[in-house]
Amino acid sequence: MVKHFSIKNxxxxxxxxxxxxxxxxxxxxxxxxxxxxPAYFALLKTNFGPDAIGLxxxxxxxxxxxxxxxxxxxxxxxxxxxxxxxxxxxxRRAALPLFGAIGGMAVPALIFLGITAAHPExxxxxxxxxxxxxxxxxxxxxxxxxxxxLSLRVFLLALAILDDLGAVLVIAxxxxxxxxxxxxxxxxxxxxxxxxxxxxxxxxxxxxxxLGVGMWYAMLQSGVHSTLxxxxxxxxxxxxxxxxPTKVNLDNSPxxxxxxxxxxxxxxxxMPIFALANAGVPVLGLALGDLLQPLTLGIALGLFLGxxxxxxxxxxxxxxxxxxxxxxxxxxxxxxxxxxxxxxxFTMSLFIGALAFSDAVLLDQVKxxxxxxxxxxxxxxxxxxxxxAPSKIPHA
Length: 396
Fold this sequence. Notes:
This protein is mostly helical. It contains 15 helices and 4 strands.
């Protein structure tokens, strides 16, 4: 038996992944602004795959509609774990990140819509600044070492997972295309079969993954974004018997085993590849006016101001109303610093931005807004946490 998913090891892995993710984002920016830039963008548009079954997709689409399905599968497994045996399985523990996540999604959207009010063609981007990038945020917390109590790290993790859940729902309801009934019927049938396998005690992962591939292909043809197949598949993977918030037997839990197996491949492979393909934006010759474009400004301020204000105000209200407890061994400035780190959007923000806009100019504005808002949030969040915790705090 092992401690509940070794939370400290999980944070260590996310911290290392954040470093790799940052390196790939910087590399993408360098390449996009070098003589290799035209070849970089041409490669992303290159199509390959069997056309006969509708899979002649560009490299960019294979990353967004293929590899990212595995990313969303892991997101779905993390959400399910936290709901069943983690921080979200108990209302008292879940209340604070839940309120923070709601405020952290609503306020950025309002700021974005306020800035883009005169440009209705941009309103599709309202959700770009709604999510928190776990790897980057946890990576910054790791730089502060034992200055930050474990309770705040767990709060940030739960908050980011709830943000991801919100982003999944947003993608499902607001970023689907023209729906195709037959393909959706196949998705529904496969999902029911997967649920039945769970109900009747099928514990081998092979059948789930095989049917999951079929569900992904049907979802790809359905008009609903294909990555949601990963979330639906995660919902059907069995947790297994005997799992509790304090004791986990990975060998007896297909769900936890699959999450642990896939996590390093996603953190050190798929997310860096996505960053390399999506963080490249030409910045040479940019002027202040480019940062003040409504789309760029709305996303940047949504992440930088909206996230910190929305998360902190909602969490503060929940604590003051007695609905939730303040994280142990923390102070208000630390909580505000963590709320500010919630403005590091990156992976999910770039992903939603690519769903919202297809125009190359608007996509560059999305990328610039995400990178600017995330950078400002990371710098300010680190500074606040550095000032608020001058000495080491013993971890539980």
